[in-house]
Amino acid sequence: MSESFDANPGSFRLRLPATSANLGSGFDAAAVALDFYLEIEAEPAAEFSIAATGRDQDQCSRLENNLIIGIYKDLLVGNARPVIPLAIRMTNDIPLGMGCGSSAAGRLAAIALAVHFGRLGWSSERILEEAAVLEGHPDNAAACWLGGFVTTASEGRTVHLARVEPPAEWRAIVVLPTEPLATSKARALLPANYSRADVVGNIQFVSLLGLAFAQARGDLLRVAMRDRIHQPYRTAICPLLAPLLPLASQDGILGAALSGAGPSVLVVVGNEESVPQAVAAIRKAIKGQMEPELRVSRFEPKGANPFF
């Protein structure tokens, strides 16, 4: 993509999809977009304001320590542009701190706002690179910005990626616990070094992951979504993971993995008809532990959708 966001800086609207990253073996490398969104509309104003509806609206509407406004201001100041206050209206359907890409969506929104109102003239690729730097890894940002299933690699600031549209018949069930989890806390549990056997195992698993999505090979997902790099170390703080991983290849379920850093779990189902059976199996597996929300979704083939 090479389009620029340097139109006359009037009102601005943007819709960004949720994402699920890692998908088991694709740690910091693979992600897929989901069909629930952060929607933002903004226009120049005398002072900053946010009117938020949807999930976590109290947190989204705070001006203090606001992720979107903070990045927006920093980018304008860093690029010698005046900071134009904005009246922002947002509808958020992405749960915060649940491993559904809320930080990637927020950072991309902030960058797009700065590019538009600051007339920075950045290309789509430049926006994605900036988001990947802020995120620390490119997977969520790439899936959110471009949609579909992506595999990514960073080379300095440059993001290399491959993208395919997931099979239209597959469904995602995001199993959301009641309490969020900070990504920093989940990352702190990971070891500094891994055994050769674990590294080779993950290379084998992730080698199947992209082809499974590209070729609609649901039979491969049970193995392709296995992981030895991050999930075993996060199980203690992501209690839904252990009971749900064994469901792969049962009740229409193709595979399961921690969604991002957790604590949510992504369950991939082969088709719409299998969803009720899969939901029943999920509820049975976690019965007596907690009452999570089950979000049945489609994979989103389109990424951020800007309107000017």
Comma- or semicolon-separated keywords:
alpha+beta, Ribosomal Protein S5, domain 2, disordered N terminus
Written account of the structure:
There is one protein chain. The chain is α+β, with helices and mostly antiparallel strands and 308 residues long. The protein folds into two domains: 12-164, Ribosomal Protein S5, domain 2, CATH 3.30.230.10; 171-298, GHMP kinase, C-terminal domain (Alpha-Beta Plaits, 2-Layer Sandwich). Helices cover 33% and strands 27% of the residues. It contains eleven helices and eleven strands. It has helices at residues 57-61, 67-78, 102-117, 124-135, 139-146, 183-188, 196-214, 221-224, 231-234, 241-244, 275-285; strands spanning 12-22, 26-44, 49-54, 86-92, 149-155, 158-164, 171-176, 253-258, 265-269, 293-298, 305-307. Strands 1, 2, 3, 4, 5, 6 and 11 form a seven-stranded mixed sheet that branches. β1 and β2 form a beta hairpin. α2 runs parallel beside α3, α3 (102-117) packs across α4 (124-135) and α4 runs antiparallel to α5 (139-146).
What is the overall pLDDT average? 94
The number of distinct β-strands equals 11
Helix count?
11
Question: Which shape, going by the Cα principal axes?
Answer: globular
CATH topology of the largest domain: Ribosomal Protein S5, domain 2
Q: Identify the CATH architecture of the largest domain.
A: 2-Layer Sandwich
Beta content: 25-35%
